[in-house]
Amino acid sequence: MISLSQVEKVYRTKTVETLALNNINLQVRRGEFLSIMGPSGCGKSTLLNIIGLLDEPSQGSVEIGGTPVRHFSDKELARLRNEKIGFVFQSFHLINDLSVVDNVELPLLYRKVSARERRRLAEEALGSVGLSNRMFHFPTQLSGGQKQRVAIARAIVGRPNILLADEPTGNLDSVMGNEVMDILLRLNKDSETTIVMVTHDESMARRTNRLVRLFDGSQVG
Fold it and tell me: What pTM does this model have?
């Protein structure tokens, strides 16, 4: 489902060159739940952004579903992201002025989906994360765990093949964190969604199929 070959990422300024990723070779099978761990600044989020087509490598190749994306236009990358990849972030990124159901509908606005179908899919996604009774609340009326569940519903509303989660339990207490992790595991099992998760939590990483560790931009172990 995801293939990275000899991926390198270098950030350059006029005076400084920073090697963020060095010779990353990674294959993620369809339906796999992979976790990525490592100290702050080791390149975890950079790697996730490259997998999610939000950033491009300085060298190397990226394939999504067997398709090389190196020569894709910005429009083609945006369409692929919207149709194939869902994103869950540590800080939720919900819009406080929109209701929960309207937040979840957002990714569908970029598709040719009727308003009725958008609402149906959003309600279905919220039901899958146990928030059918919070559809018309606003993010400011929710707990941290509920906000993260809304973020997951928004990520899966378009039924993506791949879900990328950047520290999805990082802002939650252990109880809420485990509830969110249970939802991700259920999505992985029931829908065969391929999940790549960045985490600092060893106990969460141990619940996934496989663990990749990074240190100073390189795979270790």
Answer: 0.92
**207 neighbors 32 (Cβ within 8 angstroms):** no
Strand partners, 3: 27, 63
Domain that residue 76 falls in: 2-220
Question: Per DSSP, what are the bridge partners of residue 194?
Answer: 162
**How do residues 98-131 score in pLDDT, each as one tens digit?**
999 999 999 999 888 899 999 999 999 999 999 9
CATH code, 199: 3.40.50.300
- Rounded CA-CA distance 158/85 in Å is 9
4-56: per-residue pLDDT in tens? Answer: 999 999 998 888 999 999 999 999 999 999 999 999 889 999 999 999 999 99
Distance CA 161, CA 75 (A): 19
